[in-house]
Amino acid sequence: MKTRALLLVCFFGSAAVRSARAETQTEHQIWVASIAQARLRPGSRVLGWFDLHDRRRDGATVLIVRPGVGYQVAERVSLHVGYAWIPTFVDEGANRHEHRSWQQLLWTLPAPAGWSFSLRPRLEQRVSLGSDDLGHRARLFVRGAWAPWAESPLLLAVWDELFFQFNDTSWGAQRGFDQNRVFVGLGAPALPGMRVEVGYLHVYLQREPDDQVNHNLAVNVFLAY
After folding, report:
1. What's the pLDDT tens digit per position in 80-99?
2. Element (H, E) at 19
């Protein structure tokens, strides 16, 4: 029931945004990501963070390289800060480069047996190479996962991430709602400390003159040490 409720919230949230803006462009993309978290030494509260993304879209490939450092402030809560480099390699045309600083809170919520829930608000300060305009953006990520029994090799993962921009920039950021991402997929352990999740990722982007909907195959590898 909780999984069904979460799916309905994600679906109707995206539908409400789409209904306000009828014109959309559609793409099919492949997104591959690896997200690693580690304690710098056993028993330490200092954490390392690194995620790497490769996204293939029509006419371009986007990479994200995002290192960071964190601190475990409580059993279920950690704070992180870091930097991100986002190059876009265009098949025909000039490449683009974005740089970001970012800050986030990661909160693992209490959950009944078989369930896991997490919440991650993130702030970003973004600049595009060739422009002095600084864009400010907030993101809210909510994730739920369910394993049908204690030793189940598979889990069902559902998550939603909402993006909101605080200002306009000369390089294309527009104040207000930016995009929403909804993922539904299956996960399984691959190696000790490694989990792989594969599924469908629906991305709705508010853009001018036409909004965009991406139907993506998403492959995510999670590493924890």
Report:
1. 999 999 999 999 999 999 99
2. helix 2-20
Burial of 216 (0-12, 13-18, 19+ CB in 10 A): buried
Residue 3 pLDDT grade (very low, low, confident, very high; cuts 50, 70, 90): very low
Among 131, 134, 126, smallest CA distance to 102 is for 126
Check the CA dihedral 150-225-184-120 and report its sign.
positive
Q: Which domain, by its residues, includes 149?
A: 2-224
Q: Are 184 and 197 in contact (CB under 8 A)?
A: no
Closest by Cα among 52, 9, 4, 42 to 180: 9
Q: Report the number of distinct structural domains present in the chain.
A: 1
Q: Which residues contact 181 (CB under 8 A, 6 or more apart)?
A: 160, 161, 163, 201, 202, 203, 204
User: What's 86's domain CATH number?
Assistant: 2.40.160
Taking the C-alpha atoms of residue 20 and residue 166, their distance in angstroms, rounded to an integer, is 20
End-to-end alpha carbon distance in the chain: 32
